[in-house]
Amino acid sequence: MKLLILYGGNFGERVIRNLVNDSEFCKSCDPLCTHCKYDKYSYAERITGTIRLPAPETLPDFIDDPTPYIPVLPSADIMIATEIHPDILMELPTRLNDAGIKGLIVPVEQSREVSSGLAKQVSEKCSALDIESAFPKPFCSLSTTEGIIGRFVSEFGIGIPVLEIDVVNGVISAVTVKKSAPCGSTWFVARKLIGAPVHSQQTIRDIVAEAHHSYPCTADMTVDQDLGDTILHRAGYLIRDAVMDALFK
């Protein structure tokens, strides 16, 4: 599977650096880094291109003709588009269709970037062109086994975090990341769990919460109308549930 990434800000760069497993990317444990994830994977050869567009806040509020802002797209199976101006986002389905791209993932890390109305319009345009689309809020909530997006989740190993945890004498001895949040935070949480006692679920929750905030998660800290909570909290619940599922189910 070939992936194309279109992005307009730091979150997109973070996802790219996690996917290629840049050895200078995660410094959260520095100077105690154990290189827990490096040399374990790299999807660099599957990424056909990374295209940085102007950040939405640097562009006019309304763009009558967004086509000049979108370069010719290389061939790919699926695209991630994040931190993109709404008018440019609306133009993407047509451009994806021209390039033969059959899947579009638009992560929503900040509520103001992609409203529910905009997501609905882009989804409808994609559907009319036989392009699968998903608007995970946050990106680490992406979960499907169907179609080309399900194939992406499986092959790239990102989406809702999945962990495998070994316990010896009531203490966490090893944590294996089976599926990571797209930003890579799951690896940091996993590292922080080593040596934690499992007799207290509240202790485990506290470790997860502290690690998740320390990474740090870049999701929105304002209440999202659709979620009824912050996107940041939603991301925190997902990694907490992943840890609890691995330990107690």
Structure notes:
The chain has 249 residues and is of the alpha/beta class. The chain has 2 domains: 154 residues, Rossmann fold; 87 residues, no CATH class. It is built from 7 helices and 9 strands. Helix 2 packs parallel to helix 3, helix 5 crosses helix 6 and helix 6 crosses helix 7. The longest helix is centred in the last third of the chain and has 18 residues. 40% of the residues are buried. The model has no long low-confidence stretch (mean pLDDT 93).
**How many DSSP H or I helices?**
7
Q: From the coordinates shown, what is the CATH architecture of the largest domain?
A: 3-Layer(aba) Sandwich
Mean pLDDT metric: 93
CATH topology of the largest domain: Rossmann fold
> What are the secondary-structure elements, in order, as H or E?
EHEEHEHEHEEHHEEH
Query: How many domain regions?
Result: 2
Largest sheet: 5 strands, parallel
Look at the structure and give the CATH class of the largest domain. Alpha Beta
**Can you give the helix content as a percent range?**
25-40%
CA-atom Rg in angstroms: 19 Å
Determine the strand fraction and express it as a percent band: 15-25%
Please state the structural category: alpha/beta
The main sheet orders its strands as 2-1-3-4-5
Instruction: Describe the global form.
Output: globular
Number of strands: 9
Runs with pLDDT <50, length 5+?
none
Gap between N and C termini, in Å? 33 Å
